[in-house]
Amino acid sequence: MEEFIAGWTVRHGATRDRLLPLLHAMQEEAGYIDDAWVPTIAKALNLSRADVHGVVTFYHDFRRTAPGRHVVKLCRAESCQARGGAAIEAAAAQRLGVAMGETRADGQVALEPVYCLGLCAIGPNALVDGRPVARIDAAALERIALEVAA
Ligand code: FES
Question: Any long-range contacts for 112-115 (C-beta under 8 Å, 24+ apart)?
Fold first, then answer.
């Protein structure tokens, strides 16, 4: 990742305000921001490691572990919670074999929270590999489990 960071800063700048764009570019490239890369990022942008670590951990969108081959994001915002989101989350964790916020040991699927997809009236909702799925119920959850098993 050192080469990626060096090349990116040559093209886009190495000032402190480049941190968020660099982190987004790294996540797009690698799928996550490894803690081991923080010192290199800090050095490249003349920031402290604490500065970089603070930003990476503050924003939920930055993953700190490699993603699964499939990513299921369940909405945890109010409307979806009021429509049974917590029960769906528990059922999803059991059916997919992975706890919320984690990637299954075989790397096949990650289960992550998301906070409102703008589909509140037809929740509870999910994103399956970036595709919105509305009105998640037991049957929909089973279809998702079969889809991510492939
Ligand atoms: S609260 Fe879940 S989509 Fe808005």
Answer: 112/71, 112/72, 112/73, 112/74, 113/60, 113/73, 113/74, 113/75, 113/76, 114/73, 114/74, 114/75, 114/76, 115/60, 115/75, 115/76, 115/77
What is the per-residue pLDDT for 67? 80
pLDDT digits (tens, 9 = 90+) for 65-75: 888 899 999 99
CA angle 88, 92, 96 (to 5 degrees): 175
Per-residue pLDDT of 26-57, as tens digits, reads: 999 998 999 999 999 999 999 999 999 999 99
Pocket perturbation via mutation, ligand 1, pick of 73, 75, 83, 89 by most ligand atoms within 8 A of CB:
75
CA-wise closest residue to 1 among 59, 35, 40: 40
Establish whether residue 79 lines the binding site of ligand 1, counting it when its CB lies within 6 angstroms of any ligand atom.
yes
